[in-house]
Specification:
single chain, alpha+beta, two-stranded antiparallel sheet, 2 strands
């Protein structure tokens, strides 16, 4: 099986505590919806002829 899966669309804030740091930086976009390097990579893969495509194509 081959493919890509985006776990988190954007960074998000969590409640401050002993087990959490306050911000989660796992997203493809920043908290303010600015694209990160991962967003540019995913876009280039989807637009390339060898990319993963959209909608099963």
């Amino acid at each position: 099986m081959v493919g890509l899966h985006v776990w988190n669309f954007a960074d998000f804030k969590t409640e401050q505590g002993t087990a959490r740091c306050g911000m989660r930086y796992k997203g493809v976009f920043t908290r303010y919806r600015r694209p990160k390097a991962a967003a540019h990579f995913l876009r280039s893969r989807c637009l390339s002829s060898e990319g993963v495509g959209l909608g099963g194509t």
